[in-house]
Design a protein that fits this description.
Structural class: mainly alpha
Number of helices: 7
Helix content: over 70%
Shape: elongated
Radius of gyration: 21 Å
Length: 197
């Protein structure tokens, strides 16, 4: 178990927090858009039972999490090993037990957890109205529409986060990402309208 101090040191020397932040936004955006696509599909289909919608969305959330975990771990582990071997070659020393060696083992795990949890956590938040409705909670609007609204709100928040990171106007970035979400929803609606009944 790595303590908080050593963890900060590893993140500092590898600058892995920037990589993790990039994965958080990228895969979080994937998760929100995937949920929006699924929910819009059920919306235009109409009359799908709530348990079916929940199971489909939950299955997609698990798949996104596993994809994020495995892809980030494999790619980061390969990159860190390559960097460590190059450093060892340059210094002519075995660095397995050094801070750089620890970083090559820990950072891929850290980045993979961020990359996997990001779409999973966002997806669970988006479909939470469906779950709550299944257990009897009443909403002022239908739970499916509430989840679609939450998906667009999550996409807006990710845009705001990107705006704050980049130092640009956060509201404009939030609006831009929301427009992407609305475009996605519109295209799905369009496809639904052109499908033979």
């Amino acid at each position: 178990m790595i303590g908080f101090g050593p963890l900060r040191l590893l993140l500092h020397i590898t600058q892995a927090h920037k990589i993790a932040r990039r994965y958080l936004v990228t895969n979080g955006f994937d998760g929100a858009l995937t949920m929006l696509g699924l929910l819009m599909g059920f919306y235009i289909s109409g009359g799908t039972p709530l348990p079916v919608i929940i199971n489909a969305c939950f299955g997609a959330a698990i798949a996104l999490a596993m994809s994020g975990l495995s892809s980030a771990y494999i790619s980061e582990a390969a990159e860190r090993k390559k960097e460590l071997r190059e450093l060892e070659y340059a210094l002519g020393a075995d660095l397995d037990q050094s801070v750089h060696g620890s970083a090559s083992r820990f950072i891929p795990v850290y980045v993979a957890i961020v990359n996997g949890f990001s779409p999973f956590g966002i997806s669970l938040g988006i479909i939470s109205p469906l779950w709550l409705a299944r257990y009897g909670m009443q909403f002022p609007i239908a739970p499916l529409e509430a989840s679609i609204g939450l998906a667009l709100f999550a996409i807006f928040l990710l845009g705001v986060f990107l705006g704050r990171i980049s130092g640009t106007f956060w509201l404009w970035m939030g609006i831009k990402t929301t427009l992407l979400g609305l475009l996605t929803a519109f295209l799905i609606l369009l496809v639904g309208m052109t499908e033979p009944g």
